[in-house]
Amino acid sequence: MIVLFIKARLENVAKISLPLGHTYNLTVKDSTGEDTREGVTVTSTHEEELPGSKGSANFALKWVRDSKHVAYLNVKEIEKELKNKSKQKITGCYTANDDGNFVGLVAFECRGLDVIGWQPEDGFIVESTSGARFEDVDLSEKEWMDYDEKLGESIGIYDLEYKLEGVKV
C-alpha cells in the first residue's frame, strides 16, 4: 500500500478530511520502468473490469500498448485508524492534535505502478474549533483562509505538505 500523508499548520481548525468517493489527482510511474503519467484521476466510486481477470480496479492501464500485463490501482479510503507495522498515524483525517505532524489520509493499493505525486485540489472538508463546517475547500495553493462567524476569528490551513510512502498493513 502507498499511503498519502499530509502535514499542515492550523489556525482555529479542528479537523481536515476528504469525503468518501473523493477524486485524487495523481502522478503514477511504471514500477518496472521509467514511464510516468501525470494528471491521473482516481476515485473509489469508479470501477473497471481488468482484462483477462474476474477482478476490477478503480484505475487500470497498460504501460506499453501491446503488453499483456495491466497495471492497476485501488483507492482504500480510511474510515477508522489503520494499524500498520511502521506505527505511523493513518486515520483518514487531520486534526488540531496532529498540527505539524504527518498523518495518513488515504491508501492506494498498486500493482505494476507506483504513486509518486499528488496534486491537492478542491473537495476538502474543514471543521473549525467552533464546529463550523466549510465544504469543498480548495487546497491547490497549499493554504486556505476564511472567517468563522461563530468563533468571530479567522481560520486557516498553512504550509500544506505531503509525502507518499509504502506502508505494510
UniProtKB/TrEMBL annotation:
It comes from the Eukaryota. Pfam families: CXXC_Zn-b_euk. The keyword Zinc applies. The keyword Zinc applies. Keywords: Metal-binding, Zinc. Belongs to the UPF0587 family. This is DUF866-domain-containing protein. It comes from Coccomyxa subellipsoidea. The lineage of its organism: Eukaryota, Viridiplantae, Chlorophyta, core chlorophytes, Trebouxiophyceae.
